């Protein structure tokens, strides 16, 4: 019985390693590596971070590098990022679960 459990454990480790490192399975839907998620907005438009599915909500602690381009705002569904003026900036948000997400906001 012990051998069987040992063999099953080794098999699970091998399968898990294959799933994590196999390129066809491990593809992300977002940008490669640590690249920010690209978001394009018009001035006055709001990107709804919570409804985007890119972060687990409630999202908190939003930060934007250039507040003349984009600024964090509250929406009825939670956190949003509003396009203020033309340009590009990085904004990020975090949640209690999961990593902090970085967005490259481009406002036209």
Mind explaining what this structure looks like?
It is a single chain. With 108 residues, the chain is α+β, with helices and mostly antiparallel strands. The protein has one domain (31-107): Immunoglobulin-like. The protein is 19% helix and 39% strand. The chain has 1 helix and 7 strands; from the N terminus they run αβββββββ. It has one helix spanning 2-21; strands at 37-41, 46-48, 59-64, 70-75, 78-83, 87-95, 101-107. A 4-stranded mixed beta sheet has the order 1-7-6-3, with no helix packed on it. The protein has a 3-stranded antiparallel beta sheet with strand order 2-5-4, with no helix packed on it. Strand 6 (87-95) and strand 7 form a beta hairpin. The N and C termini lie far apart (65 Å).
Which regions are unreliable across 5 or more consecutive residues at pLDDT < 50?
18-28
The percent range for strand residues is 35-45%
Q: What's the arrangement of strands in the largest beta sheet?
A: 1-7-6-3
**CATH architecture descriptor text:** Sandwich
The radius of gyration is: 19 Å
H/E element string? HEEEEEEE
Topology:
Elements: H1 2-21, E1 37-41, E2 46-48, E3 59-64, E4 70-75, E5 78-83, E6 87-95, E7 101-107
Parallel strand pairs: 1-7
Antiparallel strand pairs: 2-5, 3-6, 4-5, 6-7
In short:
This protein has one helix and seven strands.
